[in-house]
Amino acid sequence: MNELKMATIQAIQVLLLQGWSHRRIVRTLGINRETVSRHANLQKEPPRPAISTLGKTFASGRKSSCEAFASEI
């Protein structure tokens, strides 16, 4: 599978926001129309909510260097 460079992905996003048609973007950037459609659909998706880890402890992994100061924080 080919991967697009970040500059190409950003160009697709900007051109879509400017109202360019998919076909015009395909001709200008020289990429597949399905690629433009996929990135257009990704822009339409609502952002995912952030996952809060407040109040949760995890048994594995490294302890925070701030843990010693938790009562003061």
Description:
With 73 residues, the protein is an all-alpha fold. It is 44% helix and 0% strand.
Descriptive labels:
mainly alpha; 44% helix; 3 helices; 0% strand
- The percent of residues in helical segments reads 40-55%
What ranges have pLDDT less than 50 throughout 5 or more consecutive residues? none
**Radius of gyration based on Cα positions:** 21 Å
Name the beta content range: under 5%
In short:
With 73 residues, the protein is mainly alpha-helical.
Q: How are the secondary structure elements laid out?
A:
Elements: H1 6-17, H2 22-29, H3 33-44
Helix pairs in contact: 1-3
